[in-house]
Each structure stands twice: as C-alpha cells, then as structure tokens.
Specification:
Strand order of the largest sheet: 3-4-5-6-7-8-9-10
Radius of gyration: 18 Å
Helix content: 25-40%
CATH superfamily: NADP-dependent oxidoreductase domain
Order of helices and strands: EEEHEHEHEHEHEHEHHEHH
Shape: globular
Largest sheet: 8 strands, parallel
Distance between the termini: 36 Å
Bound molecules: nicotinamide-adenine-dinucleotide
CATH architecture: Alpha-Beta Barrel
C-alpha cells in the first residue's frame, strides 16, 4: 500500500474503499471483503446510511482499529456549529468507535452559508482528538478561498468528483498550491461508458489489467487519493490489485485527454444543496 502524508502529518492509504449506495445490510459484507482483500481505508458518510454496517465490519474484522483509516462526512442539513458537533457524535455512535481518521464537510452549500461555522466545529473536533484529520468535499476555489481565509486550520483533503472524463486540472492545481490533497470520488466514472473506452482496453491489454485497474493506476500516479466502490467481491479484489504495474507519462496524458469526451456526472457544487 502507498501512503500520502497530509498537511497535518497524518498518513492516509492512497487507495481506499468507497461505500456510497451500499445499503447498511450489505455494508458489513462489502467492508469485510475489502479488509480481507487488503484495503485499510474506508470512505463513508452520514448520508450513506451505512455507518453502522461499516463500523461493525471494522470492529469484527480482526484488523486493529488503528490500522484502518476511516472517513465519514457531515451532511448538509446538519451544518452549523452546534448541529455539526451533534451530528458528529451520532456518526461516532453509529460507527461504534471513539474517533475517525478523517471528517469531511460533504458539500459547501454556499446558499445556506454555514460552512465556515461548520468548519469551526470540525476544528474543535480535531482539537479534541476525535478526528485525526479534517477536510472538505466538493469545495470550489471560491469556497476554499474563504475557508482558508476565515478558518484557523487548512483542510487536509478536498474530496471531489474526478475521473478521466472529468480530470479537474484546475482544482487539482489549486489544492496542490495550498497543500491540500485531492481525493477522487466516482473515480471510475461510476462504471459507465468510461470503462468501455477503447484506449483503456488497449492499455489494459498491454499490462494484463482491466480498464478499471488502468483508471485506478492513473489516479495513483497523478497523486490522487482514490476510493473506488464495488459490492461485488471479485471487483473489490480486482480494484486493489493495482500495485504491480506503471503507466508511462504519455499513457497518463492520453487517459487525461479523455476529459474532452465526457464531463461531470454528479451535481455542481456551486449550487447543490
Ligand atoms: P465509482 O466511480 O467508484 O464506480 C462504482 C461503480 O463502478 C460500481 O457500482 C460498479 O458498477 C462499477 N465498478 C466498480 N469496479 C468495477 C470493476 N472492477 N469493473 C467494472 N466495473 C466496476 O463510483 P462511486 O461509488 O460514485 O464513487 C466512489 C466513492 O466515492 C463512493 O462510494 C463514495 O465513497 C465516494 N463519493 C463521494 C461523493 C461526495 O460527494 N463526496 C460523491 C460520490 C461518491
């Protein structure tokens, strides 16, 4: 496993396991399979309604808690100082743990204008040692500019939609300049048309890898933290088997150039509420 050191010196496994849209009843099995396959980083959120299954899988896995990097997120309706502190307590309760490794503001929701107050609550949670690192998700240059100016602690991570159809060059550069690590959500483009791209099939053929593995490798070599999701055991294992080949710089550029073909799948963070 490769690790990235965040701006607060916390080390995050660069490849993690995403669990959006895995119902609580199946999350236990999916996370158990992922931990058996070697993943040591799980990305959930209060909004995914599966924190209980995720937490139970980690507790019963036999893997020491300190060896698993666990992320959860603050939902939009819970933003605000006191409401964030309460929402965080409830997340910990559902997860059955007394700390998380990373707590993120899920979306900025500029319209409700509560992300600065919420950030102060995350700073308090970090100061109390209940989140080892704190960060944001779906923040734009505009919302991050304000957070960096008005906050005390810079975010360690910005988790954003990022895949070869939406390579986010400007946002990655913004994060890099400010010492923020970029984490890619929907890194496989949600398994849509992207994985049928002839370029990815051709490169996969060269290395004996699948298109999904080539895409995950592209993320790793760009320096992104990457959290592919699958509920299928063979794919959970396949997505972890990406540490034995290297794409060339030209191949990475060719994959990045697919960005001309696609675009954003998810909502626009400037307006999403
Ligand atoms: P993804 O890009 O990881 O794609 C997942 C889908 O791709 C699967 O459901 C499956 O259909 C397909 N797939 C997975 N592995 C495959 C393989 N080896 N071969 C073929 N097809 C495969 O999409 P995602 O779930 O949207 O994103 C990953 C994680 O990112 C989520 O689970 C969640 O943790 C996080 N996320 C965060 C936000 C946010 O707002 N912060 C938003 C969306 C997702």
């Amino acid at each position: 496993m490769q690790y990235i050191t965040l701006n607060d010196d916390v080390r995050i496994p660069q490849l993690g396991f995403g669990v959006w849209q895995i119902p609580d009843a199946q999350a236990y099995e999916a996370v158990s399979t992922a931990l058996e396959a070697g993943y040591r980083h799980v990305d959930t959120a209060a909004a995914y309604e599966n924190e209980a299954g995720v937490g139970r899988a980690i507790r019963e896995s036999g893997v020491p808690r300190e060896d698993v990097f666990l992320t959860t997120k603050l939902w939009n309706g819970d933003q605000g100082y006191d409401t964030t502190l309460r929402a965080f307590d409830l997340s910990l309760e559902r997860l059955g743990t007394d700390y998380v490794d990373l707590y993120l503001i899920h979306w900025p929701v500029p319209e409700q204008d509560l992300y600065i107050e919420s950030w102060r609550a995350l700073e308090k949670i970090a100061a109390d040692g209940r989140a080892r690192a704190i960060g944001v998700s779906n923040f734009t240059a505009e919302t991050l500019d304000r957070l960096l100016k008005e906050g005390t602690t810079p975010p360690a991570i910005n988790q954003i939609e990022l895949h070869p159809y939406f390579p986010q060059a400007a946002m990655r550069e913004y994060d890099r300049k400010h010492g923020i690590v970029t984490e890619a959500w929907s890194p496989l483009g949600q398994g849509g048309d992207l994985l049928g791209e002839p370029l990815l099939t051709r490169l996969g053929g060269l290395y004996g890898k699948t298109p999904a593995q080539v895409v995950i490798r592209w993320h790793l070599q760009l320096g992104n933290v990457v959290i592919p999701k699958s509920a299928t055991p063979s794919r959970i294992r396949e997505n972890f088997d990406v540490f034995d080949f290297d794409l060339t710089p030209d191949e990475i550029d060719e994959i990045t150039a697919l960005g001309g073909a696609g675009g954003r799948i998810g909502p626009d963070p400037a307006v999403f509420n």
